[in-house]
Amino acid sequence: MVNFEEIKQSFLSALDAATDMKQLQDVRVKFLGKKGHVSTLMQHMREIPNEEKKAYGQKVNALRTEVTEQLETAIKELEERLLQEKLEKETLDVSLPGRMFTQGGLHPIDRIITDIEDFFLGLGYEVREGYEVETDYFNFEALNLPKTHPARDMQDSFYISDETLLRTHTSPVQARVLNQADGKGPIKIICPGKVYRRDSDDATHSHQFTQIEGLVVDKNIHLSDLKGTLELLAKALFGDEREIRLRPSYFPFTEPSVEVDVSCFKCGGAGCNVCKQSGWIEILGAGMVHPNVLEMAGFDSKEYSGFAFGLGPDRIAMLTYGIEDIRHLYTNDLRFLEQFKYSEDRGVVHESL
Fold first, then answer.
1. CB neighbourhood size of 282 (10 A)
2. pTM for the structure as a whole
3. How far apart are CA 86 and CA 78, in angstroms?
4. Rounded-to-integer distance, Cα 208 and Cα 158, Å
5. H or E element that contains 30
6. Bridge partners for 284 per DSSP
7. Which one, 33, 50, 55, 337, has least CB within 10 Å?
8. Hey, what's the torsion of the CAs at 35, 37, 39, 43, to 10 degrees?
9. Range(s) of the domain holding residue 81
10. 94 in a domain, yes or no?
11. Same-domain pairing of 297 and 190
């Protein structure tokens, strides 16, 4: 005789003991699977007298229905409980204040370089880059500095071999562009990049710093073109009220050569600590491209002329933001860098510590 009540109680006990979905599935297989307790009850049908088969079949179906319904109810309740637990863990409290994210900004030097590049791109210049490890020829000789030239001592160099060195200026980029031009203009380029010199690091000097040099070569280029270009640059960097002055100087690769000063943007020319009471601040060197440089690159110096200039973004950054020690620009000190924040409406905002 089959004890239906005993099977039912066994099922209820197994159902109560199940605590996760895997255990509930095991209960389903144990009682409703192909070889489960309820499923195998129908195998006893042939042992039942004919007059009792109908009643026996009804009991088996009733038990199957009850087991199925209770099992589905238990599974549904478990799923709802698991979902509720997950929702509680992932609850978003909309009453909490939002997280504040600090917007970063470009490094002061990168910002100055970007501003200068944008200015010259607007004038139709190209941005060209070169090699930081250069040959002696392009670093010196192609720029009118032969091996015996005394001006080489002005740039104490890091030599890797007799013919290679870390470039001392970005002028080799100009020399290479001139050579690639095959004696034909026009050329309008600027060359930003890192340069290296054997120098003792202090508040105003570094063995590694950045430069931006410019070169224009074409027919009928005059010193007045250079002056006009640099005057526009000074106004773009330091304000529309700025003026420039040119003082005679010497560079081996330009003739004539000039030092360029800008009227002090702090005192307006009256004299202060920034301009050392002179009213002027030296910002760059420039000049007309030396005929020897043009001839070595294959240009006819009687037909073509040009001007070149070079400035230091490090120095421009120090002047613009009132930085007293150049080493701050290279030490990656977050306390220093966090002073330079970028605002869409005001540009770079320098906040003193």
1. 14
2. 0.66
3. 12
4. 11
5. helix 21-32
6. 260, 311
7. 50
8. 90
9. 4-88
10. no
11. yes
User: Is residue 97 included in any domain, yes or no?
Assistant: no
CA dist., res. 267 & res. 278, Å (int): 10
Q: What is d(CA 176, CA 174) in angstroms, rounded to the nearest whole number?
A: 5
CB 167, CB 143: distance < 8 Å? no
Which whole-number Å values give the CA distances from 142 to 245, 252, 286, 340, in the listed order?
A: 29, 11, 17, 40
Q: Taking the chain, what is the end-to-end CA distance rounded to the nearest angstrom?
A: 93
Burial class of residue 55 in the structure, from the number of CB atoms within 10 Å of its CB (0-12 exposed, 13-18 middle, 19+ buried)? exposed
In Å, the largest CA–CA distance within the chain is: 128
- 241 is an annotated ligand-binding site residue: no
Contact between 63 and 69 under an 8 Å Cβ cutoff? The reply is no
**pLDDT tens, position by position, for the chain (353 residues)?**
667 788 888 888 888 888 888 888 888 888 888 788 887 887 777 777 888 778 878 888 888 888 889 889 988 998 898 888 888 887 777 787 888 877 777 888 998 999 999 999 999 999 999 999 999 999 999 999 888 877 676 668 888 998 999 999 999 999 999 999 988 989 999 999 999 988 777 777 788 889 999 999 999 999 999 999 999 999 998 888 888 999 999 998 999 999 999 988 777 777 787 778 888 988 899 999 999 999 999 999 999 999 999 999 998 888 888 888 888 888 888 888 888 765 444 344 444 33
Q: Establish if 95 belongs to a structural domain.
A: no
Q: How many domains does the chain have?
A: 2
Q: What is the DSSP letter of 160?
A: S
Identity at 231, one-letter amino acid code: E
153, part of any domain? yes
Do residues 299 and 289 make contact, with C-beta atoms less than 8 angstroms apart? no
CATH of the domain at 244: 3.30.930.10
Which one, of 297, 339, 281, lies nearest residue 107 by Cα?
A: 339
